[in-house]
Amino acid sequence: MTDTTTSSDTSDSGTSDAGSGVEKVAKLIAGFRFAMMTTRSADGKLVARPLTVQDVEFDGDLWFIVARDSHEIAEITADSVVNVSFSSSDTWVSLSGVAEQVDDDAKLKELWNPAVDAWFPNGPEDPNATLVKVVSDSAEYWDTPGGRVATVFSLLKSRITGTPYDGGENEKVEL
Fold this sequence. Notes:
- By secondary structure, this protein is of the alpha+beta class.
- It has a single domain (5-174), classed as Pnp Oxidase, Chain A (Roll).
- 24% of the residues lie in helices and 38% in strands.
- The protein has four helices and eight strands; from the N terminus they run βαβββαββαβαβ.
- It has helices at residues 18-29, 71-78, 105-111, 147-161, and strands spanning 5-9, 34-40, 46-52, 61-67, 81-87, 91-102, 129-143, 169-174.
- Strands 1, 2, 3, 4, 5, 6, 7 and 8 form an eight-stranded antiparallel beta sheet that branches.
- β5 and β6 (91-102) form a beta hairpin.
- 25% of the residues are buried.
């Protein structure tokens, strides 16, 4: 792992070690159930699709259950570079990495939950159910502690004082 670099950070000295960067990213995405995974289509266009995050303990890897015959599998087979993003009213996280299809029955059963049955009614034994593992190599996040109230306050303060908007914490993290 390498050091964390900061593009704009209002909460600390601007640098932190990679371990604390991973911890911060893990903390930020812990509350998200859904992510947008961006892949490259056969004609070269970027395509983002919502997927449900299956593993809640982020260690740099993300897991998704998808259909074996899906566009996602075809696209990551052709070009494994992906982006996974998370967004709320006060937190944004963008992860870059490499995706791969993983056929691992034990892992599929471990990650299976009742919500997945809506897409695969035959359970984890469904031959069309497979895993996508995204190994993240970097992340960038924007976090506005205090949520909307703090954001509105910062916007008003910027407007009144004529100073640039101080929108919270933004860091790039090498994972």
